[in-house]
Amino acid sequence: MRSRIAFFSFLLLITLGFSACDSYSKLLKSNDMEKKYTAAIDYYKKKDYYKAGMLLDELLVSFKGDPRFEDVYFRYAYCKYGNNELIMASYHFKNFYESFPNSKNSEEALFMHVYCDYLDTYPYYLDPSVTRLAMDNLQLFINVYPMSEHIPECNKYMDELRSRLRKKSLESGRLYMKMEDYQAAILAFSNTIKDYPELENKDEIEMTLIKCQYMMALNSVDSKKAARMYEVKTRYQEFVRTFGQSNEYHKQALYYYSRSVSALNNMALQAGYTKMFNEKYVEAANVFKKQQTGNGVENQDQLQYLVVKAWYKAGRKNENPDYYRQAIDEANLFLEQYGNKHSYTKKVVKYKTKAEKALK
Length: 360
Prior knowledge:
Serine Threonine Protein Phosphatase 5, Tetratricopeptide repeat, rod-shaped
């Protein structure tokens, strides 16, 4: 008995369903716009946005010039939103706002326009241009209606989208690092810091920039290596000024800084030795001396000894007493700084003695 009742109930539901569909189909084919309007409002209130939208679509043509057109169009835009047709909903809400700027619904229409754009944005790893457009539109609403009740929502959406762009920017830098395109990584991270000063992990990014700078310098051609290594030192010094040596990332930053200093020292020695080999002793002396003035130079004693040696050889080659005097002055400077028990002292004294004999 129960099964028969259930069966007939099922048949009744199907019959009513077909009847309703048939009724709706007849309504769509009807030319009675008043009936369509009444039905559209009824479907709209029931949140059947598909059927309401179909009817309202026809009414948009028939109701032009009718006082109800504004209401029809506003509901039609909401039907697009209710059917998750966000692009079309955004378009129609914006068009409504522009067409009826004095409407009681104009503020709501502009908000729904920007809200639909917000909902239609992509995840952070996809094209960010849609996100930027949504942010521009949110800012437009804030500017037009600064006292609106929707302002807290707009600010919330702005923060979320900004966070998404910030993450996109950081991930771009990290991707370039994985690809070993350190120059592009430096640009990406630098832009992130510039565009998002509120970064919570700015110290980590600054340390990463030091690492990228060092890796780029390490893999550079000889003509660019020194300048790029020096930039590592500059970035490190800025890191210390900003975050101090107690920062949790200082140890890593110091590692790349120390490596860059060693690299610069070695390059300076190599450049000076090359000048010495080619008997360009004055140039060699200047190279060694200049390297001493750098911050963090680890081998100043060696460099000072080489300065003495280079000036002595310059004097002997050119028979120039001024060069001998320069060698003696540099030797005295060495002895003042390092004393008589340094590993290079004997060699320095040897060249000083030779220079003094040459002057006699």
